[in-house]
Structures are given as structure tokens and as C-alpha cells.
Amino acid sequence: MTRQRDTLRAGLIGYGIQRSLTPAMHVQEGRAHGLDYSYELLDLNERERSADDLESLVVEAEERGFCGLNITYPCKQKILPLLTDITDDARKLGAVNTVVLRDGRRIGHNTDWWGFSQGLRRQLPEADLSSVVQIGAGGAGAATAFAALEMGAKALAIFDIDEMKSAELASLMAGLFPGARVEPVRDLSAGIEKATGLVHATPMGMDKHPGMPLPAELLSPSLWVAEIVYFPLETALLQAARRCGCRVANGGGMAVFQAVGAFSLFTGIEPNANRMLDHFQALTQGEPA
């Protein structure tokens, strides 16, 4: 960790991240602990770069003395070959959202899965996990699938437009959780018919990726719906789910608690999670929660 006179610098690498609230959460919590803490957006879209340029951005961060980086779409899996070390849970998931830069090392962590589970528990404490359908099998999808199974999901069906990805993630999770039934699903409508809950784990619904990940008519009031997208906080999916009578969990919980974990890793200081949650809610005041 690069730290001089309580000065820290961190950043976020991803595509279309200008509305991210991660910088504000980190900086505000840093100030509460007396740190001079800056947090920058390294936006692939703004820089007219692609995920293929990821290594150059990591090198730039190292040269500028960053203590760490958060990694988001589409780089959570592409970052893996660039790391010197990786934690066990991140290795199992095959996805990293937090990289600690320390003493020439790049240490990969995954705080997404814990962040998602904390957010779901707080927003839908009585969610029926007996049969969950998940849309998305990328880096974020690995974290949410792991979280759902870690929380006790008995059955998890994974859908992705890339059938190979859904099959690979299902196989990975089945190996990690042999007591659960985990399988890829090709027919999303058939999978949802038997489900108690729906997890959405793709970028669909973000500012740069507007739209719905499924037809609204597939939703039913008996289904709970959990979202990972949080800018905007009220995605088209959540709007449709509310109209249908579904109980919903927005992406804010995952956003806050992954930041709680990352802040601790970057600074070595345990943050106040409730304070960070209050700050997030203040930042999103006016948007439906």
C-alpha cells in the first residue's frame, strides 16, 4: 500500500462508469478516518479504450502510486492473467473486482459475492432460495451465483445468451456446492416457471446498456427479483417487477458492501458499513429504493 502522510489513491476500471458512486463512498469514508483519499474513474469509454488495454491502465495506476483498483465490466475476468496473487474465493470464482497494489504485487480479491449476499439479506431477508434462476454468467454472475449458493439456494438455473458460458459457470458452481442442483438453462421462460427468485447479473439496464434482460411477461408476483445494476438504481427490470407485484432488491446493496470490503483491503482500516450505506442512500435520494 502506498501511503504517505495519510494520502491514498485508488481507482475504478470499467466501461461507461461515469455515474458510479464508488468514488464518493470511498472518499467520504476516507475523510471520516482522517485520510487524504482520492479515487479516480479509469473509464474505458471516456478514454476510447477497450478491455484489451487493461494492462496499460494497471501499469498506469502502479506508476501513479495507487494503493488499489476496483475492476468492473468488462474486465473482471480479463484481469486474472495480470495478477501476481489471488485469494482462494476469487480463484474459485474466476473473477476479481478488487486488486490491491502493494510492494510490486497485484493481489486479486472478490468482494462482489459478499456484497451481493449482504445486500440481498438486508433488502429481502425472507427471500425463498429454494429455486433461483440467474441471468448472466460473466464475472458478476460468478459472484452472485456463489453468493446465492453460499446463502443456501437448493437449486440454481443459469441462463446466458452465450450457452458455453452458462454451462461452464454451472459446472464450476456444481463442483463447489455438490449438495445443490446447479444447471445451465436454455429456455429462460421454462426456468422461471419453477423459480422462487430471479437474479439479474448482466450490464443490461445500465446507462450504456439500456433495456430489459427478459420479456416482462415472464415475471410473476410470486417471484422475488434481485438486481446488480445500480446506475440507475431503478432499472427497467425493477420497474417492470414492481408493476408485476414482485418483491425486489436493487443493486445498491451489492454496490455498498463490495465497497466496504474494498475499502478495508485498500486502507487496512475497517470502515463503518452503516455510515457508507447511509451515504449511498443520501447520494441516491429521490430514486426509488
Automatic annotation (TrEMBL):
Question: Pathway listed for it?
Answer: Metabolic intermediate biosynthesis; chorismate biosynthesis; chorismate from D-erythrose 4-phosphate and phosphoenolpyruvate: step 4/7
Which InterPro entries did the record assign?
Aminoacid_DH-like_N_sf (IPR046346), NAD(P)-bd_dom_sf (IPR036291), Shikimate_DH-bd_N (IPR013708), Shikimate_DH_fam (IPR022893), TonB_box_CS (IPR010916)
Please report the name of this protein according to its UniProt entry.
Answer: Shikimate dehydrogenase
> Could you tell me the keywords of this UniProt record?
Amino-acid biosynthesis, Aromatic amino acid biosynthesis, Oxidoreductase, Plasmid
Describe the location of the Shikimate dehydrogenase substrate binding N-terminal domain by residue ranges: 12-99
Give yes or no: UniProt keyword Oxidoreductase.
Answer: yes
Q: Which NCBIfam families match?
A: PRK12549.1 (NF009201)
Q: Per the record's keyword annotation, is Phosphoprotein included, yes or no?
A: no
Q: Which organism encodes this protein?
A: Peteryoungia algae
The organism's superkingdom is given as Bacteria
